[in-house]
Each structure stands twice: as C-alpha cells, then as structure tokens.
Write a structure and sequence with these properties.
Pfam families: Methyltransf_11
Strand content: 25-35%
Protein name: Methyltransferase type 11 domain-containing protein
Helix content: 25-40%
Distance between the termini: 29 Å
Number of strands: 9
InterPro entries: Methyltransf_11 (IPR013216), SAM-dependent_MTases_sf (IPR029063)
Shape: globular
Largest sheet: 7 strands, mixed
Order of helices and strands: HHEHEHEEHEHEEHEE
Structural class: alpha/beta
Bound molecules: S-adenosylmethionine
Keywords: Methyltransferase, S-adenosyl-L-methionine, Transferase
Strand order of the largest sheet: 3-2-1-4-5-9-8
Oligomer: single chain
C-alpha cells in the first residue's frame, strides 16, 4: 500500500485543533503498580498521560511526533514528562525500559503497513517481558459513510479501510485479522468495545485491547 507514513505536518497544525476521546479503562490500569514506568506513545496534548498522573502513577512519559501538542502537554500536565520523537518510532530508551505502554488512537493515524509494524516492534522492544500494552483504536466501521470512503480510497492506497478525512489526514480503520497479525508477539488478555467520538466529533465504535508482551 502507498499511504503516507509521515503526517507530522498535519498533527502539528490542523491536528492541534482536535479533541481526543478514547477513555482509559481503569479496570486495566488498576493492574499496574503506582510506580510502574509508563509510556504514552502518540500522546498528543497529554490527555492520557495527565489522566494517568491524576490516578496516582508517578512515572509517566508521553512521546509524540508533533512538537506543538507536546508543548501543550508540557504546559498542562506538569506531573508527566514529554518528549518529541525525531525519528519515529525510535525511542531513546533501552530494551525493556517500560512496564506498560498505551497506544490510543495512534495506529489509525499511521496507515502504512510497514510503519505500523515498525511502531509495534519498537513498543515490543521497550516493554519488559510480561509488560502490558493497552491499545485503543478502530476496527472497520459498519456505517455507510465509512464504508463509502473505504471503497473510494481502496484503489489509491491498496487497502480497504484507509481513507482521507475532509481536512487532509489519511487514516485507517482495521480488519480484525490486521490487528491480530500486528500484535502476534503479544498475548491477548482482554478486549472490549465502546462508543467514542472521533477527533472530528462523529460517533464511532472503538476497540480496546489489553495485551502482554511475550
Ligand atoms: C488521534 S491523536 C491521539 C492522541 C492521544 N493518544 C490521545 O488519545 O489523547 C494521535 C496522535 O498520534 C501522533 N502520531 C501520529 N503518528 C505518529 C507516529 N508515527 N509516532 C508518534 N506519534 C504519532 C499525532 O501527532 C497525534 O498527537
């Protein structure tokens, strides 16, 4: 497929006007020690990292490819640390550095197959064996508006599920098989579906996965 793997210009400009809404599942965060080393990958303006700090977690780091939201995160969430990724998905951390990682509404912003695989491989590298990965993202949506744009963009991007938003992002919704393949190096522990609003304020169904690094 030929979807762009670098959309940092979008996330640093138009993306700064968005509000994100995938919620933390506190039944899953309750499994973590309060001093666990936590990574919020694709942290945006620090919504989740701030939420984790507010829950009492003392070692929370957010990273993102876009400097503008990271600057906002630093200003609004002083209880967490933030860094800009200069060579995503590479993290300047040793193998097994984190006890848990969060990947919320980020895969949808990385439509390219190879870029998704590299991102997940890097998370696997920096998680300790048995470390937890919490993912929140989108399976293919059943409604006609989404189905129509999947069909319209399939030939251009070579993948059913990739689509263009009206304001210039290229995003992806996933087949179940795609997520299973991406996270094959993780053990599935739990899963749930929930209603969310997308960054453009539209209702959608999100899927959340709780995975353990093998
Ligand atoms: C939809 S937002 C979600 C932000 C945050 N996870 C939340 O739920 O509040 C997606 C974020 O992923 C970031 N992003 C996109 N591609 C990325 C990549 N390859 N590496 C790191 N961050 C990326 C964007 O800059 C944006 O801040």
């Amino acid at each position: 497929m030929s979807a762009p793997d670098d959309q940092s210009a979008y996330w640093n400009s138009t993306g700064t006007t968005k509000t994100y809404g995938h919620p933390l599942h506190t039944a899953w965060t309750a499994r973590l020690a309060r001093d666990a080393a936590l990574l919020d990958y694709g942290c945006g303006y620090g919504r989740l990292a701030g939420g984790l700090a507010a829950l009492g977690f003392t070692d929370v780091e957010g990273v993102d490819v876009a400097p503008e939201p990271v600057a906002r995160a630093r200003a609004e969430q002083p209880a967490a640390r933030f860094a800009v990724l200069t060579d995503p998905p590479r993290l300047e951390r040793p193998d097994g550095a984190y006890d848990a990682a969060f990947l919320f509404a980020v895969l949808t912003c990385v439509p390219d197959d190879a870029a998704q695989r590299s991102l997940v491989a890097e998370l696997h590298r920096v998680l300790r064996p048995g470390g937890l990965l919490q993912v929140s993202d989108y399976l293919l949506q059943a409604d006609e508006r989404n189905q129509e744009r999947y069909r319209r963009c399939e030939a251009r991007y070579g993948c059913f599920g990739v689509f263009e938003t009206s304001d210039g992002a290229v995003c992806r919704h996933h087949t179940r098989e795609r997520l299973d393949e991406l996270f094959a190096a993780f053990e599935p522990l739990d899963e749930r579906e929930l209603a969310v609003l997308t960054m453009n304020g539209r209702p959608a169904v999100a899927t959340q996965l709780l995975l353990a690094r093998r």
